[in-house]
Design brief:
Strand order of the largest sheet: 1-4-5
Strand content: 15-25%
Largest sheet: 3 strands, antiparallel
Number of helices: 3
Helix content: 55-70%
Shape: elongated
Structural class: alpha+beta
Number of strands: 6
Length: 198
């Protein structure tokens, strides 16, 4: 009986030890569990602060880029407005000497035919220089050239001893500006070889 009591006492002591051990480990676990949320909360706060700083930085960069884009758009719009307003400025400057020469020619009291001819030739050279500088080029086809409907306008067809649809005479020169047709050359065109019996 004593052995049985001793065994019960020993079992009770062992059970008590196990309970204390479990209680201690649970306490450690609970303390760890309590510390873990605190550590997680600190980490989450740090990450949130980092994300907020990054968002503020990106928002600032976006606002700067938006302002720069708006400035560029406004500058481009001003440039286009000025280009439309002053597009002819260079051409007008190049034509001013032509006008000056014509006015000077009209001021001469007793012009001779030679002086008038010389003045007109000089003025024509100035005009040609102004045209070339501003890429305003003549369309001046020669007799016998093939009709080009992109550059020539046929006023009439005439009998001629040359190929059909070739230029017989140029009535008025045409002009292109920067490779764009400004005015077609006015021409007469051959309708075919003239009949020899007529």
């Amino acid at each position: 009986m004593e052995d049985q009591d001793k065994r019960k006492a020993q079992e009770a002591a062992e059970n008590e030890q196990v309970r204390e051990s479990v209680a201690t480990s649970e306490g450690v676990d609970q303390a760890g569990a309590a510390a873990a949320p605190e550590a997680d909360a600190n980490e989450l706060e740090a990450r949130l602060a980092e994300a907020q700083a990054k968002a503020a930085e990106l928002q600032d960069a976006f606002l700067r880029a938006k302002a720069e884009t708006e400035n560029l758009r406004r500058r481009a719009q001003d440039d286009v407005t000025k280009a439309h307003k002053f597009a002819i400025e260079g051409f007008a400057e190049a034509l001013l000497p032509v006008r000056d020469s014509l006015e000077m020619a009209l001021k001469v009291d007793t012009p001779s035919v030679d002086s008038l001819k010389e003045g007109v030739e000089m003025t024509l050279k100035q005009r040609n220089t102004a045209f070339e500088k501003n890429r305003l080029l003549e369309v001046a086809p020669q007799a016998g050239d093939k009709l080009d409907p992109m550059k020539h306008q046929a006023i009439s067809t005439v009998p001629a001893d040359q190929e059909v649809n070739t230029i017989v005479t140029v009535l008025q020169k045409g002009y292109t500006i920067a490779d764009r047709l400004l005015r077609p050359a006015l021409v007469t065109v051959s309708q075919g070889k003239a009949s020899q019996g007529s």
